[in-house]
Design a protein that fits this description.
heterodimer, A: alpha+beta, 4 helices, elongated, B: about 575 residues, alpha/beta, six-stranded parallel beta sheet, 22 helices, 20 strands, globular
Chain lengths: ~160, ~575
Amino acid sequence: MRHILSILVENEAGALSRISGLFSARGYNIESLTVAPTEDPTLSRMTIVTVGSDDVVEQITKQLNKLVEVVKVIDLTDGNHIERELMLVKVRAAGKDRDEMKRLADIFRGRILDVTDKSYTIELTGTGSKLDAFLQAIEPGVILETVRTGASGIGRGERILRA
Amino acid sequence: MQLTGAEIVIRCLQEEGVEYVFGYPGGAVLNIYDALFQQDQVKHVLVRHEQGAAHAADGYSRSSHKTGVCLVTSGPGVTNAVTGIATAYMDSIPMVVITGQVPTHAIGQDAFQECDTVGITRPCVKHNFLVKDVAQLAVTIKKAFYLAQTGRPGPVLVDIPKDVTQALAEYSYPKTIALRSYNPVTRGHAGQIKKAVQLLQEAKRPMVYAGGGVVLNNASPQLTRLVRLLGFPCTNTLMGLGGFPGTDPQFTGMLGMHGTYESNMAMQGCDVLLAVGARFDDRVIGNPAHFYRSDRKIIHIDIDPSSISKRVKVDVPIVGYVAEVLEEMLKLIESSPHRPDAQALKDWWVQIKEWQRKDCLKYDRKSALIKPQYVIEKLYEITGGDAIITSDVGQHQMWVAQYYPFDRPRRWINSGGLGTMGFGLPAAMGAVLANPGATVACVTGEASIQMCIQELSTCKQYHLPIKIVNLNNKYMGMVRQWQQFFYGNRYAESYMDALPDFTKLAEAFGHVGMKVEQPGDVEGALREAFKLKDRLVFLDVITDQSENVFPMVPGGKGLTEMILAEEL
């Protein structure tokens, strides 16, 4: 099962390696990890996407909570939540492909951020599966470069993670 | 008042009531040593290797419930101490490790004696800090002591660059500390405690399984009261020995890989299991799939939520300090008219007594060779069962656990989690200093003792009258035993050739050495050794090379799949 963990952590040197070290030391998976400071600069918020049985994810949550610098951990997948990931894709856009690429970007509500006579750089936001769908929709040969942030998540409605 | 960073370190230690610092000087800690030199409240014990410093601080803590402190320099000072830090971490021992670091401007430059201390030790400490600003030094040391001692205890490391120990800052030591990210749950959930008590009262085949958490949290009195009030059988883990009196008729002996037949059978056969400050680890319950029984309810009390349902799913988890939770349970039981079904409990004891008749710890008492078990039994007799015994790791460690029943906690000091050979002697140094006047013995083997034997020199310098009982079978005994059982008697590299003459070695260090080769001489030699109250005596006891530790649950097997002595 795929789980999205949201972690509030002290914005201190070494906190990230403590968390990533925990995952490697105990053999847990990290599919993606994103982190940045919050509106309170002393805190960072991290989103980790991991895969494991319920027992494993329960252990991961407990082990994370045990780290001294971790303020709070929630499993977003326990309830309603929103998940977004940002991707930048540089594609070949020349000749007959050029219009097609623009149309496809529009269908996926992508934005073209950079244009040359041979390429587009497209920004796309959505769930991971939407980004996957876009990559599958275009011919593999035209992709020059992709970069993805990994998922960020937040609970829906009144579900709030604060220190 | 303006103080240097080094002076602040020492003032903080004084403030924490630290009696002894175990350490070894070097470039990066010279300022701290200079500040140490100019006061006499905190005493320093100069070890001969930094591993010894960490083990000594650890043994000091285990035998006293105070926080052990060690002080080492950067680079190799730290890497040498890592084994000792990891040992303390695995057994949840409160310890503060102060390490020197190269000056802040040199960090990351591959400076002389530089290493990434915080990085290297991160996986084997409860927490660690690099202090880059002298203004943060006092509060960081306060945090270190607080973290080490509260919740699930553990070692905390404070890495201090040399320029920080030189810089000046206003000194004030915080009285209390609060960390928003660190709030261990210390009080058990009332509803869960009630549920647990109900289960205990309804039990027909109950078992109490208590571990190191009972010792660490000083919960022996509560555990003992509870077990006696209910009339239940009780077993201890290797780390929990002494948590429940070893000579009590309700005690069924240690459990686990080398546990007694009756304890292991009762663990498997009980209908309600009360686990207290123990973590169901692989050496205790063997294969978890085999251990599982659908008709057994498990109550688990532990301070660390991550220890609960890690290897074994439990029915009633209770997170909190075990002493407090047991106290709450006692209140409920004492005020309730319900008692467990007396007839069922009687039948259960009949079953346990039947298992006890297997006499799983019997050994050949007529042997012409010295049996190691016999040495431990004699040691028990001669010390009145009340010595502080440290051990190294291997067969000798198991024999002490089996043949020296500890009636009190903090008398049995060994490396259970990490299994560190070389632990015994330096740990005994810490135990002697923490318990002036107490009888302290280190039971070891000829392989283990050589791993930290340099500390004999420290023992001489500080007049530490440890009695070393070296069960010398010229083999890494436990390795040899596994090779005999599971590797077709191919004794790869487990024979200890070219051993030193330990008697002469002890004498060279300024101690008393004795060699014992005949069973008939064991008792006399032990008596003579323990009479020399103010001397370290090294007893080299030549034991039966072929002796094995029984019972034994082979790795990966179920708890009841024991190999017994007579089956071989």
